[in-house]
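In full, the data.
>
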Amino acid sequence: MKKGVSFLVTVALMALASSLASASDPSPLQDTCVAIAEPENVVFVNGKFCKNPNLTKAEDFFYSGLDKPGNISNPVGSEVTQNPPHTHPRATEILTVLEGTLLVSFVMSNPENRLFTKVLNKGDVFVFPIGLIHFQFNIGHTNAVAIAGLSSQNPGVITIANTVFGSYRH
């Protein structure tokens, strides 16, 4: 009898612990959230102003221009300024190289701080695990084009140098 109760308590505690250990983004409250600058005819979803879903149209989900070079005359030489070491505390990132050659890396957390590095070429895909510091750097002699996707509707971004050297005391 005592063994049976002990077993039952153990199973109940394991079930409770496993249910507490599962975490993810909350489900979206609606199918889409089209960003909108003017707060008229909007709905407020997950802390964001979204265009009223009854007013959305196909053009809201369309962009033409990925075939045109962007302005890269900035300190990091990139249209996207997330090239320096950074982290997304709430998302895994997947990067697909469409053109050029990129050096990509991420660092595992303590105690080993292992560095994983790979040179990516056209057609290559790389995954940066959630919350780990990573970067992308164009090592080719031509422009590089890549598309990144994140596994969260609110991934967050912490640019390491800006955070460490740009912070100030309160």
Q: What stands out?
A: Residues 91 and 152 are 5 Å apart (CA to CA).
